[in-house]
């Protein structure tokens, strides 16, 4: 009995570990979509972030600063997407795909020499006292600093989004940019800041993969997590607390998949690896099914470019 | 100004945008190669030396352009209706799997197997796109994410088959199927690897153009793409058209996988596509979603892929260079289009602008 509970605790811990990158990327994307911009290139940003962090750590930079490097790399990618979609008003879907190609290419090109190398990663940081609670301690309080940071970000973002003037301005820009503009809010400025923020968080999410979750660089190591993060945002109905739940749920599916594989299952490894992607589709369908009656709460101006001189 | 002059001016402007993007990208290529420690003016020029300078290189570019044309047409027809089918890669794999199944397991039945492989590939690609289409039409589920998940599913299914049930007995332990029988091959042209799929792709381009620009149904699809509300008021059956367009798109992408099997590889291998389904998005966008512009653009990207391969072999440059260049070209094309549109006011091609997708949220 205690044995089974021990396995459960380990699985929950693994799910949280696997969910952190999803959570960070999804929170950034959630804020950006609330401002009315869709960035489909999260996968590309995460790849570049993962490589930047690993390369920095490999070069002897301390892991904390390596995470900052990943944030910086993500910032550049986010601003690139923002300048094309927000400043110029280009198609957001296609710009996101361009960012995906660019991120895949950059990380593959500059990461080739780092394949098979090792670098110091982020050590786990047990919370004093709480970490010694029998099972819960193992499940919840023995993680790396980025995991705690991700959890703490959730209430912060929820508070800023729902309870401050800044958050109100950002949501107004996502719901009705014309009205926000008439009210004196700079739509372009808000959307560029949100693009930058989403880029930073996706980059740091990538850093979690290469410094904490895997502690190595593998080409295309993000393996669809950027896309799953987009699904988490839809699952969350654009609400931060639900994003926390969704990210950990998908993390748990990923961790379980990995566990089954290690234990040796009758199903072949490639078929087992389809599980996270099948889950994603199933969750998207369920969310859509449930929202037939009440609305999805998607920001009304999502993917609509704002041009002040054009009246709708 | 006469209509012909307007069309000419637009064509010139589009060409100038593409040429500018490509020129800038070659410059960027120089910088990237320099950053990786590969210097000299030759390195970047080498990207096109092979494909423009030698018969072999040019024919290889055409070989790579063939699946790009079909998959590019698949993307174009879906994007025309603002259905963001980005699952071309998965539909291509589904088509390849079906073609391989016909070649490997169907008993001889009088007609050459290749005649059955290509329809099977079309059907499988369409089937792979059917689920996202139905989900989009009935529940409004994001086709972007569902088609993309389909890419991972199809590739993992191919992995499973190559490592397991379909693994050949004559492959020295490598994870791939046996070579298909000889009647599963498409004919090739004059000692090159260029195969009959090219003719199929070119005919496909003309047929798709005729369907979109010369039939009432095509007109409805284009209207639904440029103004969903107008299409709704006009009483078009948008939901049905969403499913039909996804089926056509999937069938074309599946066919790309089928001709790659029957024309080039002649056996199923895991991860055989160098991202044709993704490059196809770039092809379709640079061709401004116009079927007749797709073959030349696909040839250009075929050259880029061939050049990237050559650089990898001769100078050890990682093949990811091509991904970087593709991303940059797409960004520059987007930026240039958007910039020109801003300067000249109203959008000329509403379906190319940034407005949302059919029915509700674009996400």
User: What's the domain count of chain B?
Assistant: 1
CATH topology of chain B: ABC transporter involved in vitamin B12 uptake, BtuC
Largest protein interface, residues of each chain: A-B, 57 and 57 residues
Helix content of chain A: over 70%
Taken as a percent bin, the fraction of beta residues of chain A is under 5%
Count every beta strand of chain A, where a strand is a DSSP E run of 2 or more residues: 2
- Give the integer mean of the pLDDT values of chain A: 92
Strand content of chain B is: under 5%
User: Quaternary status of these chains?
Assistant: heterodimer
Q: What sequence of helices (H) and strands (E) makes up the elements of chain B?
A: HHHHHHHHHHHHH
Uncertain spans of chain B: 354-363
- The counted number of beta strands of chain B is 0
What would you give as the CATH superfamily of chain A? ABC transporter involved in vitamin B12 uptake, BtuC
Q: Which structural class do you get from the secondary structure elements of chain B?
A: mainly alpha
Main sheet: strands, sense, barrel of chain B: none
Number of helices of chain A: 13
Q: So, CATH architecture of chain B? A: Orthogonal Bundle
Which overall shape of chain B is indicated by the principal axes computed on the Cα atoms?
A: globular
């Amino acid at each position: 009995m205690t044995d089974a509970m021990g396995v459960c605790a380990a699985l929950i811990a693994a799910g949280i570990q696997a969910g952190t990158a999803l959570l960070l990327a999804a929170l950034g994307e959630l804020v950006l979509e609330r401002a009315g911009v869709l960035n489909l290139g999260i996968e590309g940003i995460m790849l570049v972030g993962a490589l930047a962090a690993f390369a920095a750590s490999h070069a002897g930079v301390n892991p904390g600063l390596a995470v900052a490097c990943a944030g910086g790399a993500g910032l550049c990618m986010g601003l690139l997407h923002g300048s094309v979609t927000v400043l110029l008003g280009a198609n957001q879907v296609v710009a996101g795909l361009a960012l995906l190609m660019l991120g895949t290419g950059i990380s593959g090109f500059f990461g080739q020499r780092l394949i098979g190398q090792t670098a110091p990663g982020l050590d786990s940081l047990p919370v004093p006292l709480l970490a010694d609670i029998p099972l819960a301690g193992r499940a919840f309080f023995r993680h790396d600093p980025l995991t705690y940071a991700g959890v703490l970000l959730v209430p912060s973002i929820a508070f800023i989004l729902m309870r401050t003037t800044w958050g109100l301005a950002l949501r107004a820009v996502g719901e009705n940019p014309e009205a926000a503009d008439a009210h004196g809010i700079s739509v372009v400025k808000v959307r560029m800041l949100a693009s930058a923020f989403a880029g930073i968080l996706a980059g740091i999410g990538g850093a979690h993969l290469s410094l904490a979750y895997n502690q190595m660089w593998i080409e295309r190591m993000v393996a669809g997590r950027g896309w799953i993060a987009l699904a988490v945002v839809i699952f969350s109905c654009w609400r931060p607390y639900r994003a926390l739940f969704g990210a950990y749920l998908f993390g748990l599916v990923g961790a379980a998949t990995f566990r089954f594989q290690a234990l040796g299952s009758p199903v072949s490894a490639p078929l087992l690896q389809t599980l996270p992607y099948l889950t994603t589709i199933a969750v998207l369908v369920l969310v859509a099914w449930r929202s037939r009656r009440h609305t999805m709460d998607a920001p009304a101006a999502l993917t609509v470019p704002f041009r002040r001189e054009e009246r709708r | 100004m006469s209509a012909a002059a307007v069309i000419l001016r637009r064509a010139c402007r589009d060409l100038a945008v593409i040429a500018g993007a490509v020129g800038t990208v070659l410059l960027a290529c120089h910088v990237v190669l320099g950053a990786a420690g590969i210097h000299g003016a030759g390195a970047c020029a080498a990207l096109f030396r092979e494909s423009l300078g030698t018969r072999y290189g040019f024919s290889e570019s055409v070989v790579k352009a063939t699946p790009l044309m079909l998959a590019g047409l698949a993307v174009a027809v879906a994007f025309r209706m603002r259905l963001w089918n980005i699952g071309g890669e998965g539909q291509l794999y589904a088509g390849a799997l079906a073609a391989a199944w016909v070649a490997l397991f169907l008993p001889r039945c009088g007609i050459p197997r290749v005649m059955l492989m290509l329809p099977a590939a079309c059907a499988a690609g369409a089937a792979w796109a059917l689920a996202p289409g139905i989900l989009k039409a009935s529940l409004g589920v994001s086709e972007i994410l569902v088609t993309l998940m389909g890419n991972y599913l199809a590739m993992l299914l191919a992995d499973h088959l190559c490592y397991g049930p379909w693994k050949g007995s004559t492959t020295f332990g490598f994870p791939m199927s046996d070579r298909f029988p000889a009647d599963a091959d498409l004919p090739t042209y004059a000692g090159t690897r260029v195969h009959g799929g090219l003719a199929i792709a070119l005919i496909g381009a003309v047929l798709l153009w005729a369907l979109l620009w010369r039939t009432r149904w095509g007109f409805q699809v284009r209207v639904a793409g440029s103004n969903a509300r107008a299409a709704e008021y006009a009483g078009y059956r948008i939901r049905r058209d969403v499913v039909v367009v996804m089926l056509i798109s999937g069938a074309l992408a599946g066919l790309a996988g089928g001709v790659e099997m029957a024309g080039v590889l002649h056996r199923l291998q895991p991860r055989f596509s160098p991202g044709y389904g993704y490059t196809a998005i770039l092809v379709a966008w640079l061709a401004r979603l116009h079927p007749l512009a797709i073959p030349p653009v696909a040839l250009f990207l075929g050259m880029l892929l061939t050049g990237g391969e050559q650089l990898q072999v001769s100078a050890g440059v990682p093949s990811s260079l091509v991904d970087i260049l593709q991303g940059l070209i797409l960004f520059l094309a987007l930026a240039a289009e958007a910039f020109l549109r801003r300067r000249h006011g109203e959008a000329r091609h509403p379906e190319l602008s940034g407005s949302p997708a059919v029915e509700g949220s674009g996400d």
